[in-house]
Structures are given as structure tokens and as C-alpha cells.
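Table S2 (text version). Query chain:
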Amino acid sequence: MFKREQKLLNLGKESCFLWGPRQTGKSTLLDKLFPDSLRYDLLLTKEYVRLSANPGLFHDELLQKHSLKNPVIIDEVQKIPALLDEIQWLIVNREIQFILCGSSARKLKRGAGNLLGGRALRYELHPLVYKEIPKFNLLRALTNGLLPRHYLAANPQPLLQAYIGDYLKEEIAAEAITRNIPAFARFLNAAAFSNGQTINYQNVARECYVNAVTVKEYFQILIDTLIGYYLPAFQKRPKRRVIHAPRFYFSDIGIANYLLKRGTIEYNSENFGRAFEQFIFQELLAYSHYSGKNFDLAYWRTASQLEVDFILGDHEAAIEVKASKNVGPQHCHGLRAFDEEYKTKYSIVVSLDPRPRLVDKLHILPWEDFLEKLWSGKII
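Corresponding C-alpha cell output:
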């Protein structure tokens, strides 16, 4: 139903990791791209038990294959880190191509797992984006989130509840990432109030009754398990005093909505503005990865409260997101200040305006116009 924009560009005969949050559609994508590939699914209990008990079986089985024209796909590869030693040997000595799919590299990193020493490319699959959805519905996206099942659901709340529960049970508890599951569950709710905001570790620590060092570690768990992302501050040669702390976004609007108990998102509400900004962040992040451009993404804020939501690349574009149908000068102070300091090539306000406008070198773009330009490569 959805034609995904992740095409594994420039893969060729190279092996790769394909990482992505749970339920983004990694297996479905690989089924479409490589329908004839040999697949090992480590979510299947029988397969997991068999190969975790004896990873050498994997090596022996592939050596019996005399002709592998397609890459070998391994789902949830992080579940058996020992397989990666066998995979590296088969890449080097038998030139077998692999696509290694999973929702988190944290277990591999923490367990000194073999990440193949640069022999595998890295790709990510994000939740759905505007270009992938026929007859895209903005309010549905902002309310349900953009994980495929959730976007399509008439009532996403039970799915989101199960998603968070499965994350705690399977990603956190089962992999022993932290032993204090109740504290981490409290942290998830407290972290939701930091969604789209500059992180104050001390404030979050007070909310969930742990210390700030533990909170930093918990945020890193969200990053490593692809449930969240940091948005760093833009700090290139600042003339003004700027904020240095990163901002944080959950990987999908629906997760933040559920944790914050937002309910249905409507126009002209405070919740709409925050969800709308996150939606644009998700689009920018996905486009950066899927296009192969992998440009830097940051925000800018001064101590005097001037700010710009998103800075792309080496200030090629500065973007402010406003839930307004009539953007005026009062919405553009941050963009003008940033342009004075860095001479941005493209300053944009993404809004609900009905038509695009150009006002003193500032591009006022309706959100659909902006996304059409973004995905056609005309922004950066």
C-alpha cells in the first residue's frame, strides 16, 4: 500500500545494516526489494534457540549454498551478537552479501558486538512520510502518528499502548538494558514533556525520582534503541550567546501523543503546533537519510530567546515552523537574526498559509508546498 522512499541507495554488492524503530516496516520493505532472498528471522523462537545455541550452524548452512544471487537477510540481528563473527568471515572469505535488520544496535555495542569494522553500510527506516502516503491526511498523521499500522487505525490508542508495553518488555527488560523498569517507565512519561524541547536533565530527574546521571543514560537508551533522537544546537562561530543543550524528539508523533495523553489533535490548538513541528522534523530527518545527502540537522536559540526550529547542513537552509494561516513579521524575528549572522541561502517559514509568498527574502510556504520542494530536492 505504501511505496517507501528508502531504496537502499548505492548498496550495490555491499552488505548493510538496516536499522529502524519497531513496526516501521523493515521486513515488509525487504520482502519487496528482495523477494527471492534467503531469510533468517530471529524473532521466531525456534530459529532463535537453534542459532543462539550454536552460531556455527549458520556458517555451515550458508557454505552449502553454491549460488546466492541475492543478499541473505537476517531479521533482528541484535538478538544473537555472536552471529556477526560468522557473518564477517562469510563476507571476507566467500563474498556473501548480507542485509542485517534490527531495531537497536545497543546490545551489540554494549556487548562488544562485531559491527563488521566498516564492511557494512548503514541505513535507517523511519515512520511513514508525506510522500509515501496516498491522500495524505495531516490531522490523522498528527493524531495517530506515522507508524504504518497506527496511521491506518480508526483508534490508535490500544496499538500505541501495546507498542510502549512491548518496547518496555522486549527492548528494555528482555535485553537487560536497565534493571529498574519501574523507574524507566516513569522516565518515559517525564521525557514526553521534553519532546521538542531543550533537555533539562535535572528537571526530568526530579519527575522520575532518579539522579541526573541516570536520566542522561535513560535518554541515551532512547537514542540507541531508535525511539528518540537528539537535535543538536547549531554553534558555528556564534556572535551571540547561544544555547548549547540538545533538543529531544521521540521518533514518532504518536508515541509523544500517547505519553502526553493529548487525544485527538485539532487545528488552532497548542497541541497542534507542537505536533506539527515534530511532523516537519520527522520529514527532514527521513529525507536526509533517504536521499543519501545525510546533511546535518540542528536548531538555533540565543540566550535572548531568538530561535530557529531547524538549520539544515552548513546553514544552507533555516526553517521556522508556524501553525498560522497568516504568517507575519512577528513570526520571523529568529530567521532574520540568524540570517544576519550566517547569511543563509534559504530562509523558510513552513505554515498553514493558503499560498506561498516571498517577503523580504523570506519564503512563506504552505506545508504541502514545502514538502513537495523538500522531497524533489529543491530545499537542500
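Notes on Table S2: The chain has two domains: 15-124, 130-375. Residues 8 and 339 are 35 Å apart (CA to CA).
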